[in-house]
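Reproducibility note. Readers wishing to regenerate the assembly model reported in the main text can use the exact inputs given here. Chain order matters: entities are listed in the order in which they were concatenated for prediction.
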Amino acid sequence: MRSQPADPVEGAPAQEPSVTHPAKRPYPPRRAWLVGACLWPAFLSAGLATMIFFSGIDPETLRLQTLPDWEISRTAGYSIGFLMFWAVAGFSSAVSVLLVRAPCRDTGKGSA
Amino acid sequence: MSAPDSMYAAHEKIHPREIKGRYQTARKITVFLLLGLFYVLPWVRIGGEPAILFDLPARQFHILGLTFWPQDFFYLTLLLVICALALFFVTSLAGRVWCGYACPQTVWTEVFLWMEHWTEGKRAKRMKLDRGPWNAEKILRKGSKQVLWIVFSLWTGFTFVGFFSPIDDLLMRAAAFQLGPWETFWSLFYGFATYFNAGFMREQVCLYMCPYARFQGAMFDRETLIISYDEERGEPRGGRKRGIDPKEKGLGDCIDCNLCVQVCPTGIDIRDGLQYECIACGACIDACDSVMDKMDYPRGLVRYTTENALQGKPSRVIRPRTILYTVLLLALVTAGATGLAMREPVRLDILTDRNTLYRETGNGLIENSYSFKLTNMSGEAHTYGFSVEGPAGVRIETEPREVRLTAGETRTIPARIQLDPDATEKIGGVDVTVTVKSLDGTDITGSETTRFRTPVGR
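Running the prediction on these inputs yields the following C-alpha cells for the assembly.
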C-alpha cells in the first residue's frame, strides 16, 4: 500500500495516490532482478547459439561419434544443447554482474 | 521483499484503467490477429501437410509448402536480418509501434489483463480487492482468475510445441498422457513463461528486461512519430468546471484529471515528456481524447506527433535514414526472393580422397577419387545421374551410375574422375565441374567445382 514508505528516493514528489512512477523509482527495483538480468540475456544468447550450432551440426552425428551406445533422440539433443548454452551464458552473466557491482567494504554485511 | 533502507524499491502492481478509443480498438484487432495466427497456424494444413511445421527431429522446416534444410540456414539468417532491419525502419518512422501493438509481451499481457478484468472487475474494484482481506469473494475472484490464466498458459505452451511436432497427433498423445519428456518439458516451460511474464512481470519486462527498449532511442530522430503531450496547449493545467473559458482563469487545456496516468500500462505520466518506459500503446491518447470530447475541447492534447511538429516545423517521412533502410530492405528482400526462386532442391558436396593424390590407370589416364555427398532436398524421391565438365576427354564414373534418393535423403557416393594427362598443360591440377541432374524429367540440376590433381613435373 502507498501509505508505507516504500519509495526510498528522498524528495520524491508526492504523486497521485494511485500512481507508481517508474521514472522516480530507483534502478534496479529489486535484487531478484539481478537474477533476471543474468538469466534473460543468457536465454536469448542460448537461443541464438542453439540455432547456429545445430543448423550446422546434427545432434545425431554428435551422438554417434561420442556416445553411440546411448539412446538420445534429436529432440533431446537440441534440448540438452540449449540448456547447456543457457547455463554457460547464464554463468558468464552472473560473473559479470558480480564484477560490475562495487565490492562491499562494510564489515558485517556478507553480500557483495 | 527488501528491507526499507534497501536501494531496491518494492514493486507495486500497476492496475491500468480500461479505456475505449481508436488506438485501443486498433490494439484489440492486432491482438486478435497475432494471437489468432499463433493459435491457429499449427492446425492449418495445405494439401494434407502442415502449413507450418518446424520439424526439428527430421531437421526440416516446412513453411507454406516449401521445405527448408539445415543447408538453407542462409535464408534463416537473411530472414532474421530482414526482420531486424524492418524493425529499425518502422521504429525510425513511427516510433515504438512494435512495443505497443505487436510485441508478444504486450499482446499476451493484454489478454491476461482482459481475464483479470473479467474476474476481478474494473480498476477501482481490483485495487479495493487487492487491499481488502482474504474473504470468500476475494478467494473466488482471484481463484477464478488463476484458473483462467493457468488454462490459457497451458494451452499456449501446448500450441508452442505444436509448431515443432504435428499438433493433432500431439493433442491425441497429450489426451492419453503419452507426451514425450521433452515435449512435456517445453510445453510447461513455455506455458510457465507466458503465465509469469504476462501475469506478473508485465511492464517490468519492458522496463528492466527488454534490450530493444534501451537502444530504440538510437533509431529515433526529430521526425519520428512519438506520443506527446502538447505542453504549450495544456499548461498551466488545472481543474475547472465545464463551460468555463480556461483563458479567463489563466489555464491551459489540461484539466489535470489524471486519466492519462491511470490508463498507462507502464504507469508513467506522459505529461512529463518522452520517457523510455513509454511503449507507445496510445492508451493515454484515447483517455485524453475522451476527456477533450466531454469538455468540448479539440482532440489531440496528447497525440501522435513528432518533435519537429511540436515545435511548428515541418516533418518529413523521406529522409536519409528512412531512404537507407528502404534501400537495404529492398535489396535484401530481392536477394532472398531470387535465391528462393532459383533454389535447386538438390545439393552436391565433393570431398576429395586425402590418401592418394592421383593414380595412373592401366591405359595411361590419370584418375582422382572422390566422395560425393548428395542430398535430395525436394519433397519427393528422384533418380540422379552425374556428368563432368573440364578439359577435353574428362570422364566420370560413380558407383552406382544412377542414384535414387528418397525425399530428404543424403547419401555418400564413391566417384572417380579420369583425364588424359596430355589434355591439360597445367601442372599440378585443373578445375573440373561435376553436375548432378535428375533423370526423371523433373530437370533438377546442381553442380559443384572441384580440383582434379595431376602429376607435377610432366
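We highlight two features of this model. The longest strand of chain B covers residues 366-376. Residues 1-7 of chain B have pLDDT under 50 and may be disordered.
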